[in-house]
Amino acid sequence: MRLSRFPIATTKETPADAEIVSHRLMLRAGLIRKLGAGLYTWMPLGLRTLRKIESIVREEMNRAGAVELLMPSIQPAELWQESGRWDVMGDEMLRIKDRHKNDFCYGPTHEEVITAIVRADVRSYRQLPINYYQIQTKFRDERRPRFGVMRAREFLMKDAYSFSTTAEDLSQQYELMREAYIRIFTRVGADFRPVQADSGNIGGAKSEEFHILALAGEDLLAVSTEGSYAANVEAAETKPTGTRAAAAATLEKVSTPGQKTCEQVSKFMKVPLTAKVKLMVAKAADGGLIGIAVRGDHEINPIKAAKHPKVASPFEMARIEDVQKAFGCEVGYLGPVNAPIPVIADFAAAEVADFVCGANEVDHHLKGVNWGRDCAEPETADLRMIVEGDPSPDGVGTIRLLRGIEGGHIFQLGQKYSKAMSLTVQGENGESITPEMGCYGIGVSRMAAAVIEQSHDANGIIWPDAIAPFRVIVTPIGTDKSPTAKQTAETLYEQLIAAGVDALLDDRGLRPGPMFADADLIGIPHRIVIGDKGLAAGQFEYKHRRADKAEMIPATLEAVLEKLG
Amino acid sequence: MRLSRFPIATTKETPADAEIVSHRLMLRAGLIRKLGAGLYTWMPLGLRTLRKIESIVREEMNRAGAVELLMPSIQPAELWQESGRWDVMGDEMLRIKDRHKNDFCYGPTHEEVITAIVRADVRSYRQLPINYYQIQTKFRDERRPRFGVMRAREFLMKDAYSFSTTAEDLSQQYELMREAYIRIFTRVGADFRPVQADSGNIGGAKSEEFHILALAGEDLLAVSTEGSYAANVEAAETKPTGTRAAAAATLEKVSTPGQKTCEQVSKFMKVPLTAKVKLMVAKAADGGLIGIAVRGDHEINPIKAAKHPKVASPFEMARIEDVQKAFGCEVGYLGPVNAPIPVIADFAAAEVADFVCGANEVDHHLKGVNWGRDCAEPETADLRMIVEGDPSPDGVGTIRLLRGIEGGHIFQLGQKYSKAMSLTVQGENGESITPEMGCYGIGVSRMAAAVIEQSHDANGIIWPDAIAPFRVIVTPIGTDKSPTAKQTAETLYEQLIAAGVDALLDDRGLRPGPMFADADLIGIPHRIVIGDKGLAAGQFEYKHRRADKAEMIPATLEAVLEKLG
Question: Cα–Cα distance between B48 and B42 in angstroms, integer?
């Protein structure tokens, strides 16, 4: 492509709401333009990258045996009522009434639609397994759209849905997708990590997320130092050590005027945070209140807590008024001794002996407290957030925390949708089988932004070759003084195109500075500069976008192709 | 692709609401599945054709110098309020409120969005001309979605928008698109015709539609017998001959009890329909009523009539009560003599002498009526539908009527949107230029159905090679008895794939009948049958989908490739 015919619109300023580097660079490089909150146009330059990611996804999905189709973006409410999700999905689902006042939504995901399609078209076990996918525009009405296309409302997604006759086959389909995802993220050029994940409101048993590691990531990942374990902290397990020191201290009430937080109490009483047990109060599954004890240095994990049968789901902290009424005491002084509500304890909290906790009396705490002696042995569970330094749940190494951007998510749904929507197929002996489903998503448009978060410098984007809008830019300089550089550049450009290389020719005739600045900002991986001086020595100047300095290479197509690799 | 791994779902029955052959065949061949009214899933087989059409469109748009981008499907109401179309677009535009109760629409078209983008990014005349296009899912909430993907609510469209500094350059951009469209429709394999068209609510001056000729077409086209003129009847002009016979008869009132329609009166009074003038009453631009006189054998063209300054736009017939009140007479007996409202006449009606018309008195007509003698010479205009046998408006040949399916539409919009949305760029001498816009659409998904309307037989679809889901199907027969046919078919299939041919292998091991029936129904253009008998003679059986009979060819890849052309 010639820049004289291909509109680019690089800018120096970015709006204040562009908080992260990928958002700023995508705007500055003119890859995207904002139309409204969470609504972006992919400009020609950005669309080239988007289409390349899309092609990689398509190729790997096809290679894994999945079959592409295209479902409507607008879905009738009836299907969501069948699955029971119409009332569960919150405001994030964009609900629509058509001219006849019938209810629809702009599909945030397509489990219901694909289940209805398979229900109508698939009759026999012989037609399974099948894995349908599509690459399609989705809409999720985010409460707070931000970070450009990273968390947009309208976005491009690849969603796939597999149907199997057995749980074993579902595992196999899932594994095929897991491998395809690893190939996709590798080919895109991302530094990524598959991690165990929570299934959220999609439902189902096993699930993993594919995270692109970046400081701007909204997710925190727990990764073992030995690389053998990785999970989203939302889902990362913690395990009991199975040991607790014997009670040594005697129970004592201490006056702690105004000392409400664990940090204040720890400092005031000169005990480490790890010797403190804090009691938080949440809404219980039965509509009442439930106390959750965690160690002073730990936090409740609301996702894991909500899975406890006694805790309300979704997790919700109790209202302060309700807590104060139940305890007859200000929050900040609560503890498990003589608590007026049921108490469950996180594994780690239950393993502390001689601990400090609130006395359920204003301005007072207890010390030397012991479970089973001063209060009942609590029911224990995995209720807290994993922290750095925790032993890895798989027993190998310790945990460190990384930030990641969720680029993909794969789920074993099981029979959640096939049961709810009465999907059955006939088995080998005429029996009725309810298929096991899996679903597999990739945020295609998000991936472009996530790669930029990983790959940029002060001058702009540094695209991996595979998804660069153009792989190489040919820049003639000094063209106002002599026609040779321009002609040579034209020839090289034509040769590169003929060789199937995605080349860009900067034929704008600007000064070198602005041309180089644009090429750096838009992140073209390879740059060939052609000037009279180099040509006199039979040379082109070559520079990789990551290199500090340019180098001279022979002025031949072969030398250029060798550099492109 | 192997049919054992590629799901097809052919069926024998189609629902009663599938009224046209393409809708029935697309359902029977399993190309599409209905999700709701006007909402269709493109199944894997259908999607392959859709993507091939999409690729042809993209290649030709790129070749014509247009640049692809991708705008959001969801658009803020503000832009439509700026252009003045928010209140003009009827129920066909799907209006949406987001979680914050802000107004949006699912874009039925993107003039407003692209104008806003160019307004933000383009500063100088040097950046023009530019032609942006996208291939994107659109939604139009049709009152009566029908004919499958032919008139669906959600559909795939290519829309392009050009911006020029002068009207001359707009003409050039328009011409480039016109040529690209001719190439696209030709490559897709359609029998099509570009015709002059009305611009509808998109606005602008010149426009042409690209129609795929088919009996099921919803549009009527007026085409000259010499091929020199073609227009949608909505837009087809008629011209005055400039002659009228001198008045010969005397005015006479005739009793015509119960004879209300032109046909009744013509028969009763024994005069040809061409000697009758009927007076229709429409809403006038000033809010009152206006009489429109057309010849007895002609009909009002509401699109052309609405362009007359005295007629309300959009065109609307007057309410019967209002007409009867104004005339003091039942409709069916109206005429221009002593009409109590202003009357305008179509050219042809104004050229009739000694005509018959209603007497504005129940059960009575007048005969021997003459304009300028018995009533005022009327203001004349082009107000009627063109009919078969009319002289061609370009003076060459006469008109015949064809049916067409609108596959594309190109418009010279002029400054309608650039003016309304204050888009200006700086000219060569610093002056402010309001760009001239063009817009160019193709119904990508509709095109698939339209081609089927043209190209099918009793057994199913007959795809043109360029958009067939697969070009050739290799079908081994008798595989239960001998492995040779199966192995040979596998080899040929692999060779075809390696040669870049989009081949399908029917490895389902069914009886020949069902395999041939499926191949015919889904419309694969070329079929190779491989059986032991043929192989013994060193031959494959080849049949083109259009051929009556199969023929034997040498059992070699070369012979097959030669047949594929």
Answer: 9
